[in-house]
Each structure stands twice: as structure tokens, then as C-alpha cells.
Backbone:
């Protein structure tokens, strides 16, 4: 089995910073893209940032210049550094990874989500 465990969410004032972490564990053969999505109340889940194994990134325009995805391939961990946070960044943030589990195939895995709340 494969699990993604997130940490680092919380309450922060506008203009502040948070760093999210997501560690993949279990019977993992290989990990391709890792990244972050978010879902605000009443809205659809949207991409925030993704990063490939080669560390190429794709970042949503709404957070570009403020959020940065990074990863540690040796630790199967992806991070999201969030700076200059705005109230509209308030959402549940979900970790995602494309993982080839041992004895399996490429599949999508999701974390349980971590709440980020930005107060004005």
C-alpha cells in the first residue's frame, strides 16, 4: 500500500508564510509528478503547483511568484512554500503524486488534505 501524509497547514495572517510537506510511504517503486491542489468552500479542486522528478515545475498563475513547489526525491517528499499569503488562498490543500507501486502500475494517489486559513 501507498500513503501520502501531509503536514504544515494552519492559521496565518495575510502576508504571512506557511510551508506544507507531503511524504509518500509504502511499497513504492517510482514516483513521477508530485504536487499540490486546493479546494475552497463551494469551489472545484484546482491545481496549485506540480513538480516532476527532474524538478520541472508548473505553477498556477494565481500563486506564481508567491508559492514554490520543491521535492526531495530521496525522501519521497514534496513541499509547498507559501509566501505573501492572501485570504483567497484559504482552502484545503491536497498532496498528489503519480506513483508506481511495487507489483502495480502507475496510479494517482492523494493525501488526506490539510487546512490552510488566511485571516485578513
Residues:
Amino acid at each position: 500500500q501507498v500513503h501520502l501524509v501531509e503536514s504544515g497547514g494552519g492559521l496565518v495572517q495575510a502576508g504571512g508564510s506557511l510551508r506544507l510537506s507531503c511524504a509518500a510511504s509504502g511499497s513504492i517503486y517510482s514516483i513521477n509528478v508530485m504536487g499540490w491542489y486546493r479546494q475552497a468552500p463551494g469551489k472545484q479542486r484546482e491545481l496549485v503547483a506540480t513538480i516532476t522528478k527532474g524538478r520541472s515545475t508548473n505553477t498556477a498563475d494565481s500563486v506564481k511568484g508567491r508559492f514554490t513547489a520543491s521535492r526531495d526525491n530521496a525522501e519521497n517528499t514534496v513541499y509547498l512554500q507559501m509566501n505573501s499569503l492572501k485570504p483567497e488562498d484559504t482552502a484545503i490543500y491536497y498532496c498528489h503524486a503519480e506513483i508506481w507501486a511495487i507489483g502495480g502500475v502507475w496510479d494517482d494517489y492523494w493525501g488526506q488534505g490539510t487546512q490552510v486559513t488566511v485571516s485578513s
Summary: The chain has no helices and eleven strands. The chain has a mean pLDDT of 97.
